[in-house]
Amino acid sequence: NAGVMQNPRHLVRRRGQEARLRCSPMKGHSHVYWYRQLPEEGLKFMVYLQKENIIDESGMPKERFSAEFPKEGPSILRIQQVVRGDSAAYFCASSTSAGANVLTFGAGSRLTVL
Amino acid sequence: AQTVTQSQPEMSVQEAETVTLSCTYDTSESDYYLFWYKQPPSRQMILVIRQEAYKQQNATENRFSVNFQKAAKSFSLKISDSQLGDAAMYFCASLEGSNYKLTFGKGTLLTVNP
């Protein structure tokens, strides 16, 4: 079992560009969560998705950020027109059912905005 | 809303000694879970130990144990016989039973001195 796979591990973008972060959950997991870790901070919840559905996006910034988890393929976190404040580590986690008490994290994607 | 506080930004311990990392939390729920995660330089989030609030017995995983004081809302992590590989950032986190959003503290950076 390959675990939760995230790519890219490192992404550098210039201000105004788009960033796409991908997450493949563990085999058999249909629930995906995205968290953001700003420098010197703990992780903060962004969005919770099931296949083809956004369940809770209360932690997502209202503009420029979107997430999807299509029927086929990985979950995507998309950040449009990136700004320096978007520089952070973005973690994906997955679980077999709703509820994070058995949640498995990926290794994260570090976004740097120049 | 849940809050998790880690009052020690940094701690250090000598190899083979014991160290305790502090965590306090606040929740209005009676059903909740508490976690300690380890984040080594690789940035992978690794679950160290988990405690269900309804269990009075403190959780233990090999050299890692917790002191769960429910009335005081305290959840400290004790690492015995510290090893060089224990050096990492340690995050305390809570989850309300009816929810799926983990709430993290800001972390404690543990250094292990040879």
A few lines on this structure:
The complex is a heterodimer of chains A (114) and B (114). Chain A has strands at 5-7, 10-13, 19-24, 31-37, 43-50, 53-56, 65-68, 75-79, 88-95, 104-105, 109-113. By secondary structure, chain A is an all-beta fold.
Task: Note the main attributes of this structure.
heterodimer, A: 114 residues, mainly beta, seven-stranded mixed beta sheet, B: mainly beta, four-stranded antiparallel beta sheet, 12 strands
Distance between the termini of chain B: 41 Å
Strand runs of chain B, count: 12
- Briefly note the structural class of the backbone of chain A: mainly beta
Level of helix content of chain A?
A: under 10%
Model description:
- The complex is a heterodimer of chains A (114) and B (114).
- Chain A is built from no helices and 11 strands.
- Chain A has strands at 5-7, 10-13, 19-24, 31-37, 43-50, 53-56, 65-68, 75-79, 88-95, 104-105, 109-113.
- In chain A, strands 2, 4, 5, 6, 9, 10 and 11 form a 7-stranded mixed β-sheet that branches.
- The radius of gyration of chain A is 13 Å and the shape is globular.
- Chain A starts with a strand and ends with a strand.
- Helix content of chain B is 0%, strand content 53%.
- Chain B has no helices and 12 strands.
- In chain B, the strands form 3 sheets. In chain B, strands 2, 5, 6, 10, 11 and 12 form a 6-stranded mixed β-sheet that branches.
What's the topology here?
The complex is a heterodimer of chains A (114) and B (114).
Chain A: E1 5-7, E2 10-13, E3 19-24, E4 31-37, E5 43-50, E6 53-56, E7 65-68, E8 75-79, E9 88-95, E10 104-105, E11 109-113
Parallel strand pairs in A: 2-11
Antiparallel strand pairs in A: 1-3, 3-8, 4-5, 4-9, 5-6, 7-8, 9-10, 9-11
Chain B: E1 3-5, E2 10-14, E3 19-21, E4 24-26, E5 32-39, E6 46-52, E7 60-61, E8 64-69, E9 74-79, E10 88-96, E11 103-104, E12 108-113
Parallel strand pairs in B: 2-12
Antiparallel strand pairs in B: 1-4, 3-9, 5-6, 5-10, 7-8, 8-9, 10-11, 10-12
